[in-house]
Amino acid sequence: MIQFENVTKRYGDATVLDKISFNIEPGQFAVLIGPSGCGKTTTLKTINRLIEPDGGRVLIDGDDTAVINRVQLRRRIGYVIQQIGLFPNMTVAQNITVVPKLLKYDKERCDKIVHEMLEMVDMPYEQYAHKYPTEMSGGQQQRIGVLRALAASPPIVLMDEPFGALDPMTRSTLQDEILRLQKKLHKTIVFVTHDMEEALSLADVIIFMEDGHITQMAPPEEMLKNPANETVKNFLGKHIAAADPSALTAADFMKTNVVTVDSKKGLRASTALMMRASVDSLIVTDENDRYIGTLSVEDIKSCGSPDCRMIDLVKNDRETFRTTDDAKRCFDMLLSTKANYVIVLNPDDTVAGIITKTSIAKALAERLWG
Amino acid sequence: MYGVSLLRNIGIHLMYVIVSVSIGFLLGLTLGILLSRKPSYSRIVLPILSIFNTIPGIVFIGILFLYLGMVPMTVIIALSVYAMFPILKNTYVGITNVEQRYVEAARGCGMNRRQILFRVELPLAMPTIIGGLRMATIYTVSWTVLAAMIGLGGLGEFIYQGININRNDMILLGAIPAAILAILLGLLIDVLQRKVTPRGIRKEAMSR
């Protein structure tokens, strides 16, 4: 267990940490987040005493870290930094065994660790153990960076924006991997990020910091439901809406670039418009842009004569919704009827947009992946 | 006629170079490391050293000669001090230029200061340090010519004699072997450079 008791850090007149207190339980994945300069990295670094607090105590399993030799302390705590920081003069195997060697493990044990570690991230020993960091991609390098932190089986691992410098694809792969490792190894992980998405997907508990204070410490669901203040809310941003499906309205999912046509226009013009926009139906409005109905290519064909008046062909059998209607109702309607879209109207009956089955897919995707 | 004396003087010359550069290397490396532990001192120490560096070798040997007399020690002390400068400077620069992230990672892994120095900083600074050694060696080959000025032999002997009796071929007999010696030693150090540069930083070192 990691305990902070009134930890304070000042640089000159600036107070970076102002009497912060919190506990991280064993096996918890704790994410420190907040605007830059909020003190999250400082907090992280006081745990392995890369930064010494000016006041208060940091306890690990009840022991005050200030009285433990800091070099010994750091060998018992894994540490992953943002810029990876693999030693370029050492091979992958040498990098992984830095801490085991400092702890004077024998060669055999070190070899075994390298094999086990590489296996854990599916990097074949023969292929990677003797590579140098510059010979690998950023994602592979940071995997090794994580393995280096885990090599001596420390119960606690500190990660300072470990995936910040990686591209989004690699980042999400590594996030999955770290979650998998965490489940398997039951480490206590303290993780700094400025990316709320990352925090929400990784954390058991999020510690939100601002100006050297802890604004809120809560599990992700709790933080989404009850953000402590505006800053937290801003950080959560779109995730708040996504977390509460009942709050989503038709307006959140409709496509607004729909093709409308004035009912006064002739059939020929309408057909031309369909071709230009490559759609098979149009939304027909009156001269005040109010919704009248829809006109499909089949409707035009069924008339057969160019003399038909458009107004006679327009059908008004589509379901319409208001922009403020519950998105779920639109989806239910779409799924239960054969219609491939429903129409969303503004309060003044003008056309706001349409909702298609693709919109549902998008909604699901956002719900699943944020 | 000069064959035997040429070989002998090449030998003496080489001896001066090897001894002085070795001493200079040890001194420069040690002082460079110490200075890198206290970078704030370097703002005072490095300028003083560069002023020292501008004193012509001939003056320095002359002054030492007054105190120590015509002994090889005079030449070796002077040459060692001069060989030390580039090595000291490059050691200091090499170590202080090691990217902070590596030092921080090393601290975070639980290395103490000595371990950080020997396992991370020195290996990463090695290409720069050897660059200083190369410079020192090549300079020292030419400075060693001054040994003959106080009658202590080496290839300078031919050069001074040649000047005195106004024989250009004699001057060249000293100058050409000295130039070849400098080139060969330079090549030797290039090989050493490649040996001590870890594969992982070879590319970086080359672009430096």
Furnish the topology, listing elements before pairings:
The complex is a heterodimer of chains A (370) and B (208).
Chain A (H helix, E strand, L loop, with lengths): L1 E10 L2 E11 L4 E5 L6 H8 L7 E6 L2 E2 L5 H6 L1 E4 L11 H5 L1 H5 L4 H14 L4 H4 L9 H13 L5 E5 L7 H18 L2 E5 L3 H7 L2 E6 L2 E6 L1 H6 L4 H7 L1 H6 L6 H4 L6 E3 L4 H11 L3 E5 L5 E6 H7 L6 H4 L6 E3 L4 H10 L4 E5 L5 E6 H13 L1
Parallel strand pairs in A: 3-8, 3-9, 6-7, 7-8, 11-12, 14-15
Antiparallel strand pairs in A: 1-2, 1-4, 4-5, 9-10, 12-13, 15-16
Chain B lengths: L2 H35 L1 H16 L2 H12 L3 H25 L3 H9 L4 H31 L12 H9 L3 H29 L2 H9 L1
Helix pairs in contact in B: 1-4, 1-6, 1-8, 2-4, 3-4, 4-6, 5-6, 6-8, 7-8
What does this structure look like?
The complex is a heterodimer of chains A (370) and B (208). The longest helix of chain A is centred in the middle third of the chain and has 18 residues, at 168-185. Chain A has two domains: 2-245, Rossmann fold (3-Layer(aba) Sandwich), CATH 3.40.50.300; 250-369, CBS-domain. Chain A has 18 helices and 16 strands. By secondary structure, chain A is of the alpha/beta class. A six-stranded mixed beta sheet of chain A has the order 6-7-8-3-9-10, with helices on both faces. Chain A has a four-stranded antiparallel beta sheet with strand order 2-1-4-5, with helices on one face. By secondary structure, chain B is an all-alpha fold. Chain B has a single domain (3-203), classed as MetI-like (MetI-like fold). Chain B is built from nine helices and no strands. In chain B, α1 packs across α8 and α5 packs antiparallel against α6. In chain B, 39% of the residues are buried. The interface between A and B is medium-sized, with 28 and 22 residues.
